[in-house]
Amino acid sequence: MTAEKNLIVSAAEEAGFGELRAGNLGVRIATTAGEIDAVQALRYQVFYREMGAHPGPDVSASQRDSDAFDAVADHLVVVDHSIGPGPEGVVGTYRLIRRAAAARIGRFYSAAEYDISMMERFPGEILELGRSCVAADHRSRAVMQLLWSGIAAYVFRHRIPLMFGCASLPGIDPDVLGVELTYLYFNHLAPEEIRPRALPDLYVDMRRVDPATIDPRRALIKLPPLIKGYLRLGGFIGDGAVIDRQFNTTDVAVVVKTDLVTKKYYRHYQLEQRGATD
Hints:
278 residues, alpha+beta, nine-stranded mixed sheet, two-stranded antiparallel sheet, globular, disordered N terminus
């Protein structure tokens, strides 16, 4: 086994929750270099081919979405065992970065867009979520539920009270997204003590329209499923959007206190763990 594979397997074992199953689908931490390669290939397919991100020469040549954070992160994967138990079966992913992993790079990924110093001062472990995507033919409630179950198991294993990250709305015109951004600002703004703020040179005011003209139900429907998922768990939004021209998105910062996540998914996790040891 190569040194790289040893590091990946050791990291996965340290993450420590095994695999949670729902029929043919399972969720766990990637354990091989091949699975991480499959994650990067899936991200390329979704972000660049489907969503219109603009690849540089290296990305075009490799047809992989990758960066320095991949080497230090834990990669949550949903595997469809009807396709295969390894890289060939990877159909969903989430990238998970804790304090120690971020320290190896020198920062969290989100720090390139947001001032997250208030979260870095938060007592205890913190978790950055990112690079979430699901293969087109597996975009279902079952896959998303499994991803959240995996996150809950990971949060429980590492006693993480706070998680955060950047979530994206499609397109780079904030006025086209004016209803969604305004709704998020006036209805889900994070408390000041845990509120990320877009960096000054990237800051885009989210208050695009008169909030009195917004139908909250319709605004919620227009939001991407991932952002709606965070909000259902009691998540908050940071101050300021950021235009990501490479990925053809408008980003918002998301903060979630994990007590609701673990309460919602903990029982399912307990049952799975009990079944694995019986």
